[in-house]
Design a protein that fits this description.
The complex is a heterodimer.
Chain A (H helix, E strand, L loop, with lengths): L16 E12 L2 E12 L3 E5 L6 H9 L6 E6 L2 E2 L5 H6 L2 E3 L12 H12 L14 H13 L15 H13 L5 E5 L7 H12 L6 E5 L3 H7 L2 E6 L2 E6 L1 H6 L1 H6 L8
Parallel strand pairs in A: 3-8, 3-9, 6-7, 7-8
Antiparallel strand pairs in A: 1-2, 1-4, 4-5, 9-10
Helix pairs in contact in A: 3-4, 3-5, 5-6
Chain B lengths: L9 H8 L4 H9 L2 H5 L4 H23 L8 H17 L4 H23 L4 H21 L1 H4 L24 H22 L2 H11 L3 H4 L4 H27 L9 H14 L6 H19 L4 H15 L3 H15 L1
Helix pairs in contact in B: 4-9, 4-10, 4-12, 4-13, 4-14, 5-6, 5-7, 5-12, 6-12, 9-12, 10-12, 13-14, 13-16, 14-15
Classes of the chains: A alpha/beta, B mainly alpha.
């Protein structure tokens, strides 16, 4: 929809930047939660955002998606300044997110919820004279998203009755229904038992290569396995960033984060 | 979900959601019974149909979108006064009166929707309560126009389609109210089963998630609120025309509160909840006020507290849970 085709100025490894922030800052009174954040996500990236609790990881996602307004700085999506846009405008331009705490439509079933998201994207949600069931293309698209995430068999079950792990997958399904170019995953496997969290991350790994991903995750095994690049956030500022190998070898990171891995 | 559902294709499943159930057909056939069985109660039946229409309008915003309103009678009253004034000063043709009254309430509803769509929860309750009281006092003060507490006198309605006089027994009144209710019900039924209806349920189920799927909740709410206001105005207009009188009661806080009670009794967000709730409420009022005219509200209170405690989804919610259990056997 938007002009993402024109070449962005910053280029890492000759790839266009899908999402960038410049000098992004946010403070609540005297508490600084984001300090001068410079971020460049190349198209197709698999970036992890790590840091101790309270480092401002979720705040950063809230700032990028427009759920919080920054005090200073810029957010660029495909080179376009989206800093002034509301959350739903950013979603329509291709910036989607999931939530650390399930933020689902408890009383709708998975099929209805994802169909709603597809209908919103296709501009059908204002239609009040045709039944939902008559929009076959939107329904097929919704079901296909659910099926790919292995939610096809559960799609008639009311969300609140779905097992927790399935609800985490539905979080991702709802975000995918917006056809994002950039997807921000806030601890996609939060609260899922470790033996099942693999299922969630397999689903994440199976997403299209065109999709640019940034995910927050505490489990270092998962981070090192799925991320191509890691950003370490401490006290609202970027502490360091680099490849998994560089981060693993960084003594500073070990001290602030890896040393206190148990949700320090 | 029943095991049968899982064998349906996704589209067939969603289409089945909006299919007519035999019980619905039975319900609408039963609404014709008063003509044969209770010809002495047709005026009451007409009042019930009008109240049900009013409850249906509130269900769109309260039941489906989860937008609370304690001032919904403002739109009912605007419709009633508009229809009454048109018949008094312009002409008594009823159908054009309905259209104009509906439009008037819809326009005011649209204007108010810009305020309403910005707020939620307690703030919204207070705002709608305040707006409702403003409307009441405006109608009260404009004595020269509305007749104030004396009511609007001199309303005179021509025969419907030039053929059917509003008779003393209420045959025409009930037929007129019931026909209006049925037509609007068909439209509302379409609306709640549409993508827009799904979006309203989305707003009710999770207000925070809606922008994250790219939805403009405020635009949806403005639209739903305008539609609900227009239907409430239509209900008021039917009351004004069938009773040939408009009292201040039609725009009072009491009416706003009563309609919320009816919806909660019947079951909000269920389409038939408002209809069942209005029927029970009006019948209870008729019966209890016969026993003790001063204290009939006591029994409504008992009924409300009991239903809310025992059946959180209203009488219809309780019945459908029973029905589901019976079918599962």
């Amino acid at each position: 929809m938007t002009a993402t085709a024109h070449p962005a100025k910053d280029v890492i490894a000759n790839r266009a930047i899908a999402l960038a922030t410049h000098g992004l800052s946010k403070a609540f009174g005297s508490l600084t939660v984001a300090r001068d954040i410079e971020l460049n996500l190349p198209v197709g990236a698999r970036y992890a955002l790590i840091g101790p609790n309270g480092a401002g990881k979720t705040t950063l996602i809230n700032l990028m998606t427009g759920m919080l307004a920054p005090n200073a700085g810029q957010i660029l999506l495909g080179g376009d300044d989206i800093t002034a846009l509301g959350p739903q405008e950013r979603v329509r331009r291709g910036l989607a997110r999931t939530f650390q705490i399930n933020t689902l439509f408890a009383g709708l079933n998975a099929l209805e919820a994802v169909t709603l998201a597809v209908a919103e994207r296709r501009g059908l949600a204002g239609q009040f004279w045709r039944s939902v069931g008559s929009n076959s293309e939107a329904i097929d698209e919704a079901y296909e998203i659910l099926r790919k995430l292995k939610l096809g068999d559960d799609c008639y079950q009311v969300t609140r009755e779905l097992p927790y792990g399935r609800q985490r997958l539905l979080e991702i399904a709802l975000a995918l229904a917006t056809k994002p170019k950039v997807l921000l995953l806030d601890e996609p496997a939060a609260g899922v038992p470790q033996e099942e969290s693999g299922e969630v991350f397999e689903a994440v790994a199976g997403l299209s290569d065109d999709l640019t991903l940034l995910f927050i995750e505490h489990d270092m095994h998962v981070v090192f396995r799925f991320a191509s690049h890691i950003i370490v956030l401490v006290g609202g500022a970027i502490f360091t960033e680099g490849s998994p190998a560089e981060i693993a070898a960084d003594p500073g990171v070990r001290e602030v984060y890896l040393g206190k891995r148990k949700h320090g | 979900m029943s095991p049968k559902a899982t064998t349906l294709t996704p589209q067939a499943y969603l289409l089945a959601q909006s299919r007519w159930h035999p019980l619905e057909i039975a319900f609408w056939l039963a609404t014709l019974l008063p003509f044969v069985l209770f010809p002495d109660y047709l005026s009451l039946a007409s009042q019930i149909a009008i109240t049900a229409l009013f409850a249906l309008s509130l269900d769109i915003i309260l039941g489906y979108a989860g937008i609370v309103s304690l001032g919904h009678a403002a739109f009912f009253g605007i419709g009633a006064y508009t229809a009454g004034l048109i018949s008094k000063f312009v002409w008594g043709e009823p159908l054009s009166g309905l259209v104009l009254a509906t439009a008037a309430a819809g326009i005011v509803g649209f204007a108010v929707s810009f305020i309403v769509s910005r707020f939620r929860h307690f703030t919204l309750i207070m705002i709608t309560l305040g707006l409702g009281l403003l409307a009441f006092e405006a109608a009260n003060r404009a004595h020269w126009l509305t007749g104030g507490s004396d009511g609007l006198q001199g309303v005179s309605i021509w025969p419907v389609l030039g053929l059917f006089h509003f008779d003393l027994y209420g045959y025409t009144a009930y037929a007129y109210s019931l026909a209006t209710l049925f037509v609007v019900f068909l439209g509302t039924r379409r609306l709640v089963n549409s993508p827009f209806g799904l979006a309203l349920r989305g707003i009710r189920e999770n207000w925070v998630r809606m922008p994250a799927i790219g939805a403009d909740s405020r635009a949806h709410i403005r639209k739903a609120y305008t539609i609900a206001a227009a239907i409430a105005g239509l209900a008021g207009a039917v009351l004004a025309q069938t009773t040939e009188n408009v009292s201040l009661e039609s725009i009072s806080f009491q009416r706003s509160a009563d309609v919320v009670v009816m919806l909660v009794l019947g079951g909000a967000g269920r389409l038939y909840g408002g209809l069942i709730g209005a029927t029970i409420f009006m019948l209870a009022r008729d019966q209890f006020s016969g026993i003790a005219p001063q204290f009939w509200y006591f029994w409504i209170g008992v009924l409300l507290v009991t239903v809310v405690m025992v059946l959180p989804n209203g009488i219809l919610g309780g019945l459908s849970a029973l029905y589901a259990r019976w079918r599962a056997k």
